[in-house]
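Q: I have 407 residues here and want to know how they pack in 3D. Can you give me a structure?
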Amino acid sequence: MSCRVVITGLGLLTPLGASPGAFWEQLLNGVSGIGPLTRFPSERFACRRAAQIDDDALPAATGPYAHELKRMDRFVRYAVAAAGGALEQSGIAGHDGGGVFMGVGMGGLPNMEAGVVRQDSRGPRKITPYLIPSLIPNMAASMTALTYGLHGPQYTVAGACASGLQAIGVAVAHIRAGMLSWAVAGGTEGVVTPIAFSGFEALRVLSTATNGPPSPRPFDAGAEGMIVGEGAAAFVLEKREHALARGATILGELTGFATTTGGEQIALQSVAGIVSSMAGALRDARMDPHDIDCLYSHASGVPRGDACELEAVRTVFGGNGHAPTLTSIKGHVGHTFGASGPLNLAAAIAALQHQTVSPVLNLRTPRTECDGFDVASEARPRALRNVLINAVGFGGINSSLIVSRAS
């Protein structure tokens, strides 16, 4: 690699709030952002819970594009809010050369659905001219760039649930290649909408449990599905020399990344694909498996997916105490699709800073595939140097990122 890439800013918006400190504290304390579905009437759906963000949690739109931003779909407003937090923490405002790299899985599905309903009920002449600009996937990156006056390269990555992690990987590649000194990168998603629930219920991947232990239950023998979540996380990534020259605080270093194709069916995970992604990230970081201390996994509580990831982890790392400590944040924030990898990265940065692995929420009886692994059923103090993050998406997309303790 031609240079080292570090993180100097972190911003997020989650069902657990918009403060990175509060987000970490609630992860540690087992607080769940999942509750009754209130965004729309839920009686016709088997799954009636979601991890939603309250409207009053969104910062008020400001700046020359505030009028337009208020009319954007949620995924756009979430991204702009998260990016603003990252830029503020980094203190990089005024430095030239910043690009924007944003991952989005499903774009403005809520506004698209609402537009179809409005057209059918009131006719095409009643559609707002803001409809198309509000929902196209690039608007998360575009409104971030416009709002904060960023004039470098702009990329939107649409890689299903791996979108956000892939966007960060693309930004890292640009910085390593000397194409820019810093960038805002992350992922965003906001698809708590009827058509999303209909589609996921048709796939039979949503939790429909109404009694017994709460769901989702990553790595649990009784897991029966995921819960839809929403949110965004964004980071300021910098060339290490650039960050040191301006006296920035370094939160962590991105040392390895890989993304691969591999799968047997478009909506199912592949052991071989996840193996190749994790192995590629290790090669990129010039690390061996024993260098990884913790894995913030993709695990969402969908039984087959969790089993595939566990088998892949066993293939790469082995078991019997030699594998990294495993955890998942899906029980806290649901499955946030394109934002899931970046939210895992936010948790991993805090874990490195506090030398503690946050617990898997709702884990009662670990799956048999967990045998030999240290699964964090409670907060786990541990010496952490390097943390690996997985994100897996429909279409056979696999992504893995390694973040290392600041040095």
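Q: Anything worth noting?
A: The longest strand covers residues 252-261. The mean pLDDT is 95.
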